Amino acid sequence: PGTCGDILRPEVIRDDGGADYANIDDVTMTAYTPKLVLDPVPGSVAFSDTLDGTSSDLEFDVRSQGGTSDTVLYGAYVTNSVALTNGSRDATAWVVIGDDEFEIVSGANVVATEGAGDQTMTLRFTPTSAGDYSAILRVATTDPVDRYSGGGTLFDGIVYEEFEVSATALAKPTISIGSISVDETDSNFDATFTVSLDASTIEDVTVQYATANGTATAGSDYLATNDTVTITAGNTSTTLTVTIVGEEVQDSALTETFYVDLSDAVNATIGDAQASCTITDDESQPAPTLFRFK
Predict the structure, then answer these.
(1) Nearest-10 Cα torsion for 110, 112, 116, 118
(2) Whole-angstrom Cα distance, residue 84 to residue 78?
(3) How buried is residue 235: exposed, middle or buried, by Cβ count under 10 Å (0-12/13-18/19+)?
(4) pLDDT tens digits for 211-269?
(5) Which of 52, 73, 246, 290 is most exposed by smallest CB count within 10 Å?
(6) What are the C-alpha distances in Å from 256 to residues 182, 248, 273, 278?
(7) CA nearest 163: which of 248, 95, 214?
(8) How far is CA 12 from each of CA 8, 17, 21, 26, rounded to the nearest angstrom?
(9) Which helix (H) or strand (E) holds 39?
(10) Is the alpha carbon torsion for 140, 145, 150, 151 positive or negative?
(11) Is there a contact between 140 and 92 (Cβ–Cβ < 8 Å)?
């Protein structure tokens, strides 16, 4: 316990016409030294914007700032109200109540020992769809003397603190690939396809791609390829290339087509999954020979 020192009691005004103030005394108040310190400070906390289908973490620290050497935090919670129930010391210290997308993934049972430094609890947010989410996070101790730095709330022999947790999940962007046309030349060259998102995103997006024959044949008209392409966070497009095989001899067909297919997108949904490349033969038809008969 510490001493707050001399505190002046304020005047109390009466309504009945009697004395206009109460006695003024010097009093000494006793206060508990804050012992369990939480970081962040209890109140409203928010996750960073999170892409649907991914996860984000928030960490909460508690440490002992004096008091008993083995202060145990625990609490048993039954509803989303302030109601608590007394339980055994091996019950849960941290509890999250609200949307199922929030989960305590580590540090739920904490022993805050003086001099041991911060004990960390990790709360994870894994949204299942785009939108706004919320929950209540509580942490409690069995000892009403070992109050938190903010004072805490006492209920049935338990002191607890409460956080209002909020999070926003962003929708995944849609990824697509565009079709192109190229003119065949006498030597090999690269045909460039554009892969694009319908909106920028906060996470890197990856997608696999592979070529497929149409009327054009891999090896003789183009070089088959399969790989992964990445659009980095904050951007909306990137490119990929496929090598076109040059020919000096005219094909039987003036145009040939092959395809590039997208699959297995990460952090995006696939829109236009297939693009075509139309190759136009650059070898012109020979000029007809004219004969004149006399």
Answers:
(1) 70
(2) 7
(3) middle
(4) 999 999 999 999 999 999 999 999 999 999 999 998 766 556 689 999 999 999 999 99
(5) 290
(6) 10, 15, 20, 6
(7) 95
(8) 12, 13, 5, 15
(9) strand 36-39
(10) positive
(11) no
Structure-block tokens of residue 203: 């996470």
Q: Which two tokens stand for residue 281?
A: 């033969």
The span from the CA of 56 to the CA of 153, in Å, is: 29
**What would the DSSP string read from start to end of 106-123?**
E--S-EE-TTS--EEEEE
Q: Beta 237-244 vs 269-270: how paired, if at all?
A: unpaired
What's the token pair of residue 274? Answer: 């297939």
Supply the pTM of this predicted model.
0.68
Q: For residues 125 and 169, what is the distance between their CA atoms, to the nearest angstrom?
A: 9
Residue 291 DSSP label: -
**Amino acid found at 12:** V
Q: Is 173 helix (H, G, I), strand (E, B) or coil?
A: coil
Sign of CA dihedral 128, 130, 135, 139: positive
Query: Would you give the DSSP letter of residue 218?
Result: B
* Amino acid identity for residue 171 in this structure: A
* Structure tokens given for 216: 């054009």
What are the pLDDT digits (tens) for 36-66?
Answer: 677 888 889 999 999 998 999 999 887 766 5
DSSP structure string for 76-98: EE-SSSS-EE---TTS-SEEEEE
